[in-house]
Amino acid sequence: MSLSLVHSRALLGLDARPVCVEVHLANGLPSFTLVGLAETEVKEARERVRSAIQNTGLEFPANKRITVNLAPADLPKDSGRFDLPIALGILAASGQLDARKLAGYEFAGELSLGGELRPVRGALAMSLAVAGAAERSDQTGRRLPRLVLPQASAQEAALVPGADIYCAHHLLDVVRQFLPGDTAPEPGDGWQKVAPTACSQPPRYLDLADVKGQAAARRALEIAAAGGHSLLMVGAPGSGKSMLAQRFAGLLPDMTTQEALESAAVASLGGRFTLAQWAVRPTCAPHHTASAVALVGGGSPPRPGEISLAHRGVLFLDELPEFPRAALEALREPLESGQITISRAAQRAEFPARFQLVAAMNPCPCGYLGSSLRACRCSPEQVSRYQGKLSGPLLDRIDLHVEVGALAAEELINTPPGEASAAVRARVVLARERAIARQGSTNQALEGQAIDAQCHLDDAAAKFLNGAASRLGWSGRSIHRCLKVARTIADLAGAAKVQVTHVAEAVQYRRALKAIG
Questions:
Q1: Where does the chain hold its CATH 3.30.230.10 domain(s)?
Q2: SS3 breakdown of the chain: % helix, strand, coil, rounded to 5?
Q3: Euclidean distance between the first and the last CA atom of the chain, given in angstroms as a whole number
Q4: 197: exposed, middle or buried (Cβ count in 10 Å: 0-12, 13-18, 19+)
């Protein structure tokens, strides 16, 4: 047979779309043509595939005109994931493999010049897509597809429940399974079905007990974790802002299997996922020189940025005013919607971005405005200019603003360890369970009429909030944010209704900045 079809998948954002690798051998001037909107690394597969086939002792049809089409033609393809399916297609078209046996399998893997299979990024996204196709095929009675991957990628893909994954170490390990005839393949470790990957180790986080003092900041962290709120910490250098932020993920409830799969799939796209990170909420802390593209994602083809890599976890932005203005403004929409759409002239990709923002900053350029340990040497104009780097619309979208005071040496040395993360997490889990049982979501996700229904205030609480909003010049968004924080405080207290005390505490968490309230 001079024509063969091998199935694989291409990544467009988090979506792994099916690709049919069509290989045709014809008489004529010897050549190797690869078409189908392939990026440079895919076109380089011609040399890798040629060397891999020859160095494994198989016959490369060098006297034929080889045409490889990656269909559909208008779908961009990148990376070396198509090396393995292209090689199998050439071997099947030249009669060295039984093309009928390849049906029902999907292949992905990069080939070395010696034929070894190297891992590919996005294996988990491919496995999720195959599992989704399997659910749809079950309704039509079709057999679910099986995915063949390199060893490291196969372990990652096997995290998806019900996925049918096979792993191979070398091109020859795959070839032996699809030789012509009815002979059974020789047993070996090079080819095997991968058992579902199970990670029994509980996730490990830094403990909040390491933080001494800072009762107000610890309380704000607890509220933010319970309600899914964003948080801005303002304080002098060395007051413990970074230390608090690095321990925030340990206060959040354990990830569900679906949340863990979503987070791991995005990390796999970025080439950052390891099995040790399974079900561990990520904490991404980009440097303040990061660009807008680094934060939200981009490139050609589009890659996930830090906000997507922090999906279902924490995005920690230290030295917040030092970030480029364009990078900070790009966070506005994802903070509201929980996803980011990257649109380019040739393609459009969507990535999830449901993260919790934890930011830290100094109150002024020197860092000691309002500090009891050292006098501030900044003029009012310098303070205003420094804090003015943060736009009002961005600050509006941050639910909690808390001041982190500096500790004196005596307080730091003689103060006993603070409350452990486990005790705080237990209260957070109870508060979230109350919110989900009442409205089906965290309080931060409330919108529209749901805010009025779930955050209903009595006359005293409404009068207090109206007075505070008028004095502080709040926008409608700020009022709604305050209401949602008050609802979370009520959930932590086990109260069925939002009371004046809850609203009063919530108001205090939007007054940390002295120059721009």
A1: 3-193
A2: 40, 20, 40
A3: 74
A4: middle
Residue 25 CA to residue 428 CA, distance in Å, equals 63
Distance CA 267, CA 311 (A): 9
Task: Name the CATH superfamily for 208-440.
Answer: P-loop containing nucleotide triphosphate hydrolases (3.40.50.300)
- Residue given tokens 């003092």 in the structure block: 213
Enumerate the H helices of 39-188 as residue ranges.
40-43, 45-55, 83-93, 123-140, 151-157, 171-175
Q: What is the pLDDT of residues 118-166, one digit of tens each?
A: 999 999 999 998 887 766 555 545 567 889 999 989 999 999 988 889 9
How many residues appear in the chain?
517
| Runs of H (alpha helix) within 168-233 | 171-175, 215-227
Residue 92's SS3 state is helix
pLDDT for residue 409: 78
Quick one: DSSP state of residue 338?
A: S
Query: Tens of pLDDT along 5-62?
Result: 999 999 988 889 999 999 999 998 999 999 998 888 899 999 999 999 999 999 999 9
Alpha carbon distances (Å) from 178 to 64, 169, 275, 509: 22, 16, 31, 65
Q: Which residue has the tokens 């649109």?
A: 343
- Nearest residue to 32 via CA among 1, 13, 53, 14: 53
Task: Name the token pair of 261.
Answer: 């799969």
Q: Is residue 76 reached through a cis peptide bond, with omega within 30 degrees of 0 on the bond before it?
A: no
Cite the residue boundaries of each domain of the chain with CATH code 3.40.50.300: 208-440
Respond yes or no on whether the N-terminal peptide bond of residue 72 is cis (omega within 30° of 0): yes
Asked if residues 355 and 315 have their Cβ atoms less than 8 Å apart, the reply is yes
Q: Which amino acid is at 511?
A: R
pTM: 0.88
Q: Write the pLDDT tens digit of every residue in 127-136.
A: 998 887 766 5
Looking at domain 3-193, its CATH class is alpha beta
Q: How far apart are CA 509 and CA 482, in angstroms?
A: 8
Distance between alpha carbon 23 and the CA centroid of its chain, in Å?
Answer: 36
